[in-house]
Structures are given as C-alpha cells and as structure tokens.
Specification:
4-stranded parallel sheet, Rossmann fold, alpha/beta, 4 strands
Amino acid sequence: MADSEDRIRLVLVSPGDLAAERTAVQRVIEELNRGVGANRLVLWRWEADARPGLHLQGPQGLIDDLMDLPSADVVIGVFWRRFGTPTHDADSGTEHELRRAWAAWREHRRPDVMVYFSSRAYAPRTLVSWRSGNAFWSSERSCRASSCGGRTRARGRLRRCCAST
C-alpha cells in the first residue's frame, strides 16, 4: 500500500440525483488502484464516508468536518437535474462545498476543482430547481458558465474563471 504522502485524495460532491455516476466514479477509482494507481487514489463521498451525528451548523457542518476539503488534492463536482438541498449559507450542499473548495484553492492552490455536467436528457417539471442552480452559476461571485465557455472540463479555464471570484 502507498504511504499517506503518496496518496491522492479525491472528494466527490454532487446532489443526490447522480447515484449511478457516483458509484461509477468509485468503480473507476477501484479499478485504477488495482492497476496503475497501486492504492494511491482515495475517494471521499458522503454516502460512504459521512456518518449520522449532531453539529452546531447542522448536517452540512458535520459533513464539512468529515470531508476535510482543505486536505483534498482534487474536488470533483457533478451536476445533472438537481442543484441540491439548501444549507445554512448556500442554495445547496454542493454549492457550499464547491465554494469552500474554491476558497481553499485561492488560499493554498489546492485542491484542484473540476466541475462536470451530466449530458443525460432531462425535462424539468418545474423551474424551481433550475432557477436555484442558474442563480449560482450566473452570480458574480461564482464561476459563471458564460465566462468559462459553457460546460467546461478544462481545469485551467475553470481555475482562471474561479480565481477571480
């Protein structure tokens, strides 16, 4: 097994509507670790690594403590049709986590932050979830999709965009 200094710690953040994709990420990490990764890749995801408990800032505060974003090497955000569940300071836990990751990156140049969007077809029944997510992506304080060139997967472009927030 690799030493802890040799490990790459990944944190996966997304709303709950991406269970299949989140499981697929776990399988890919396991496959890489069996081959070239040599157990170097460590994935944190709330459904496997969070636990029930009490926290002064509610459930998100407990998840934040366990997630330990400042010690992550990479944070991967994934979205599809839902934006997520509101928290005390954001429209969703995923937004809260991405904002914390971007703040850590601006201060320490880590973790790397990558955001992906599912391309599966979706027709919303209501505009509520869409409006919440749209407000986040179009706000002046966040990484606007328009200034990042749409659904970007290019880490450098995302960094430049979010570094200005």
